[in-house]
Design brief:
Helix 2 runs antiparallel to helix 4. The N terminus is likely disordered. The longest helix is centred in the N-terminal third of the chain and has 13 residues. Helices cover about 20% and strands about 25% of the residues. It has about 425 residues and is α+β, with helices and mostly antiparallel strands. The protein folds into 3 domains: about 45 residues, no CATH class; about 150 residues, YerB-like fold (3-Layer(bba) Sandwich); about 150 residues, YerB-like (YerB-like fold, 3-Layer(bba) Sandwich).
């Protein structure tokens, strides 16, 4: 079996069920490539040839490997960002001035208790407009000779560059200045006032008399644009330096007033007017709801302004102190000059205006060196102190024969808000 035998062998292999199809194909290819060797082998022996190692390897099916899936890592959770807390600002410590209750930063505590300085100021028509009144913490206005009122301005927390014109002392003004243990600046004065200053100087008050500390001393000066006696001026800086030189350094640590913050606008009336018709100065206050102050007008000059600052004179509190006033007859000089005597010790009627409100009150001064206390005249708070709104205080001393009058403000309309 030569060529025919080869074909027979192939047919026999193809007729069998192949164990592995791929192996049969490999055998055919191998036989074609080695026809001589296979033919010789087949013709030389009847023994079935053993498959080679290569054939075994090729006939062995290579297993299909399934891909190994690596586990997918779970995404890391996004961290929740907590909002950064905004620190609440710590309120700046504040202290209240002992004269008018105005809040000042704690680092200005020295101003809040600084020794007050009182200055007598002219109110003759030739002295208007005056200098320094807008920067005073407290202002007293009271009667003097000829129906011409006079001011006493008390300074603590502000320092006007000019104050004046400076005029002479009167006993009742000296007594009020003593309530604040103030340095008291004036140009001479009535005999009873000068006697009181000499007696109490350094104990209840510090006497700064222009006759001694004016002129060449440099603490006071005369201006050329006004005639004498309406031309004497000073400044806070000069008066403070002199007060320290004289030994007046003790602070004013307590107040004779009770203070309160202003009311909300919705709780304040609108309008209102106060009129004090001194014979030589017709004083009018018109309440301003927006600023919660009482701008002043005086006589023919109209709206009152400060010649040193240009600011309007507009206190936060107006207090009318009704007092008996008569002529002083202690000396012939008193009679000749028609000097006045004011009953400032005792008690009497008062009217207090702040926050647009009209408050009937009583003033009480138990002794020469006692404070003047203001209390409610009626109602559930009768006898209790009437609070002052923090801000400038104008004390209007009104003789009982002067027909002061006032018009309360109207109820706040609903559309008016803060």
């Amino acid at each position: 079996m030569k060529g025919g035998g080869f074909l027979m062998t192939v047919r026999s292999l193809l007729s069998r069920r192949p164990v592995v199809i791929g192996a049969g194909i490999v055998i055919v290819v191998a036989l074609v490539g080695s026809g001589i060797a296979i033919s010789a082998n087949l013709s030389g022996s009847s023994t079935t040839p053993s498959p080679s190692a290569t054939e075994i390897a090729l006939a062995t099916a290579t297993p299909t490997l399934e891909p190994t899936l690596e586990p997918t890592a779970s995404p890391s959770p996004t961290p929740t960002l907590e909002p950064t807390p905004v620190p609440t600002p710590t309120p700046e410590p504040m202290v209240a001035a002992t004269t008018d209750g105005v809040w000042l930063p704690a680092d200005q505590a020295e101003l809040a208790t600084r020794k007050p300085i009182a200055v007598m100021i002219d109110d003759h028509w030739g002295a208007r407009p005056q200098s320094g009144l807008s920067m005073a913490n407290i202002v007293y206005q009271g009667p003097a000779e000829g129906g011409i009122p006079r001011y006493m301005a008390i300074f603590q927390t502000q320092a006007p560059p000019a104050i004046g014109p400076v005029r002479s002392a009167r006993l009742y003004f000296v007594a009020w200045a003593e309530e604040y243990a103030a340095a008291y600046n004036h140009m001479w004065g009535a005999p009873n006032a000068m006697g009181r200053l000499a007696q109490d100087n350094g104990q209840y008050i510090w006497n700064i008399d222009g006759l001694r500390y004016g002129g060449m001393s440099g603490y006071m000066w005369r201006v050329g644009f006004r005639p004498s006696p309406h031309n004497l001026y000073t400044s806070y800086a000069k008066l403070e330096a002199l007060t320290r030189k004289l030994g007046g350094t003790a602070p004013l640590t307590t107040s004779q007033f009770t203070f309160a913050d202003q009311l909300a606008g919705s709780d304040r009336p609108v309008g209102g007017q106060i009129v004090i018709p001194y014979s030589a100065n017709h004083v009018v206050y018109n309440y301003d709801w927006k600023t919660n102050t009482y701008p002043r007008s005086v006589s023919a000059e109209g709206a009152e302004t400060d010649a040193a600052t240009g600011e309007s004179i507009a206190p936060s509190n107006v207090v009318l102190l009704f007092m008996n006033v008569g002529f002083l007859d202690t000396t012939s000089s008193d009679v000749r000059k028609h000097r006045l005597e004011v009953q400032y010790v005792g008690h009497g009627t008062a009217m207090i205006f702040n926050n647009g409100l009209t408050i009937p009150a009583v003033w009480t001064k138990k002794g020469e060196h006692s404070p003047t206390v203001l209390t409610y005249a009626s109602g559930p708070s009768k006898g209790q102190p009437v609070p002052m709104v923090r801000g400038q205080i104008f004390m209007q001393v009104v003789p009982t024969y002067v027909a002061a009058r006032w018009t309360p403000g109207a109820v706040v309309p609903p559309q008016v808000t803060n």
